[in-house]
Design a protein that fits this description.
The chain is 45% helix and 16% strand. It contains 15 helices and twelve strands.
Length: 321
């Protein structure tokens, strides 16, 4: 390992440890002001307007996005743009969450004044208790006095990390209070890997499941297997409830005299099934554990009435498996 590599690693570890220590200090210092900020947002009839300048602005955008995706309507408003017309986005009923490490950022003056003029609740986040921002705020969230991660002490690092973590803490406190469910979360995350992970079996299954009755001749069962192309056929009783399943393995085991048998003679009884409301990830786990390629989807009320079939290829296309 070269000396430069050693130096780089030492710097990286120092920075991460310094920021981790700052987060611990932030967590220990949370008090009633944090709870008051949560209450203020919960009681709002409008949105959370998040604003900040420079690095605080970048953090503010992320906090607004986290709020919005976890059930708290939110929007980022750039403070400079606010001074040129975007103040119209900040309405009565909203709550403003304004970020500034110094608490004296001049570009924030107009948005702060706007909240005071129209009686819009203001939550300020800053690192100086005597700053203009925190003095003007209805709820002041004071960041602890800790050094930045750089040796010069001037690069926004530790301070922005603490601000970001504080925003996450607010978002999760709001989310848990509202009992925000995975189903609600999925509404805001339909795309990408996260959307796929939250997909339900009912979203991916085929409703045209291959089925024959218990007393159907195997010639009919073979035709159904070929026609549907899933490599399986479900076997139902007279009431349409699933009794068994016929796979390629069942065909091989009954090769002698196969066409003289009925579907009920060949089927494997009590196959593994799943409900339409289950996560598709759970279905994939079951298929992997049982070394099978599909699951019949049955009525969630326990009747075993078939409503669809989920094949591993459906999950692959959705990006789950």
């Amino acid at each position: 390992m070269t000396s430069s590599t050693t130096d780089f690693l030492a710097t990286g570890r120092r920075v991460i440890r310094r920021e981790a220590e700052a987060l611990e200090t932030l967590a220990e210092g949370l008090d009633g002001s944090f709870a008051a900020a949560v209450d203020l947002i919960l009681n709002a009839t409008g949105r959370v307007i998040v604003s900040g300048m420079g690095k605080s602005g970048h953090v503010a955008r992320k906090i607004a996005a986290t709020f919005a995706s976890t059930g708290t309507p939110a929007q980022f408003v750039h403070p400079a743009e606010a001074s040129h017309g975007d103040l119209g986005m900040v309405m009565r009923g909203d709550v403003a969450l304004v970020l500034s490490n110094s608490g004296e950022t001049p570009e924030l003056a107009d948005i702060v004044a706007h909240t005071r003029r129209f009686d819009i609740p203001l939550i300020g986040v800053a690192g100086r208790a005597e700053s203009t921002l925190l003095k003007q705020s209805d709820v002041a969230l004071l960041l602890p006095t800790v050094p930045e991660a750089c040796e010069t002490g001037i690069v926004p690092t530790t301070s922005t990390t603490m601000t970001l973590a504080l925003g996450d803490a607010l978002a999760i406190a709001l989310m848990e209070h509202r009992q925000f469910t995975p189903d609600q979360f999925r509404v805001f995350h339909p795309g990408g890997k996260l959307g796929a992970r939250l997909a339900r079996v009912g979203d991916l299954m085929s409703t045209d499941a291959p089925l024959v009755t218990h007393d159907s001749p195997m010639s009919d069962a073979l035709l159904m297997m070929s026609a549907k192309g899933f490599g399986v056929v479900g076997v139902t009783d007279g009431d349409g409830y699933l009794q068994g399943i016929i796979t390629d393995g069942d065909l091989r085991r009954h090769m002698a005299g196969l066409l003289g048998l009925s579907a009920g003679d060949v089927m494997t009884a009590a196959p593994r099934t799943i409900g339409p409301g289950a996560l598709a990830e759970k279905a994939v786990r079951i298929m992997n554990e049982k070394k099978i390629t599909c699951l019949f989807v049955v009525d969630p009320e326990g009747s075993q009435s078939v409503i669809g079939l989920l094949h591993i290829h459906d999950c692959l296309r959705a990006g789950i498996a």
